[in-house]
Specification:
With about 200 residues, the protein is an alpha/beta fold. It is about 35% helix and about 25% strand. The strands form two sheets. A seven-stranded mixed sheet has the order 3-2-1-4-5-6-7. The longest helix is centred in the last third of the chain and has 24 residues. The structure holds glycinamide ribonucleotide (GAR). The site of glycinamide ribonucleotide has 15 residues, from helix 1, strand 5 and helix 6.
Length: about 200
């Protein structure tokens, strides 16, 4: 299966996905990594692994739709079958969601539906929760609202900072995201309404 990864930043989740592909734990090919940030480290990681890395500058387009059309064109040209958002800090537009419905995944650093949107880790810390975690879900038109594929919790300690909690969550993300992608590739996920079921039988 042909995958595309969209990332805006450091790309540690991208790295986990690349490593899982290399180990055969994900039976897919990363055809392209796309970023909205020119010097995103994620792009360097892709190039280092011989994966096409594309920077698409929103400033080159008249608006959000035109920018998303440009992304869709890159995805369609590479015959991408699953879009993986890995720290991509923009909303994917309805144009892309309609073209790739049920074929876009996101990872979010909280136990959704708590703390969606930006700064999920800071939101959880500020709220004072004792447990947080991460969520892999399918993308729909809402903000982090699509059917949940996998979720795992981590404890929150009194002396946690955004950085320490982020490190704990990242460790889980790097395990969970490749697993969710492989379940999708193997056709082991089914969607009923807003529920996602795993058929591992
Ligand atoms: C990850 O923790 C991911 O859950 C989060 O960004 C981080 C990217 O890290 N995504 C969001 O907050 C989406 N709203 P990475 O660049 O090292 O993979």
């Amino acid at each position: 299966m042909n995958l595309a990864v969209l990332a805006s930043g450091y790309g540690s989740n991208l790295q986990a996905i690349i490593d899982a592909v290399d180990k055969g734990e994900i039976e897919g090919h990363i055809k392209v990594v796309i970023s909205d940030v020119k010097d995103a480290y994620a792009l360097q990681r892709a190039r280092r692994h011989g994966i096409e890395a594309v920077f698409i500058d929103i400033k080159d387009y008249s608006g959000r739709e035109a920018y998303n059309e440009a992304i869709a064109a890159v995805l369609e040209k590479r015959k991408v079958e699953l879009i993986v958002l890995a720290g991509y800090m923009r909303l994917v537009s309805p144009l892309i969601i309609n073209k790739f419905r049920g074929r876009i995944m996101n990872i979010h650093p909280s136990l959704l539906p708590s703390f969606p949107g930006l700064e999920g880790i800071k939101q959880a810390l500020d709220y004072g929760v004792k447990v947080s975690g991460c969520t892999v879900h399918l993308v729909d038109e809402g903000l982090d609202t699509g059917p949940i594929i996998l979720q795992e919790s981590v404890p929150v300690y009194d002396d946690d900072t955004v950085e320490s909690l982020q490190n704990r969550i990242h460790k889980v993300e790097h395990r969970l995201y490749p697993r969710a992608i492989q379940l999708f590739i193997q056709g082991k996920l089914s969607i009923e309404g807003r529920k996602c079921f795993r058929n591992e039988g």
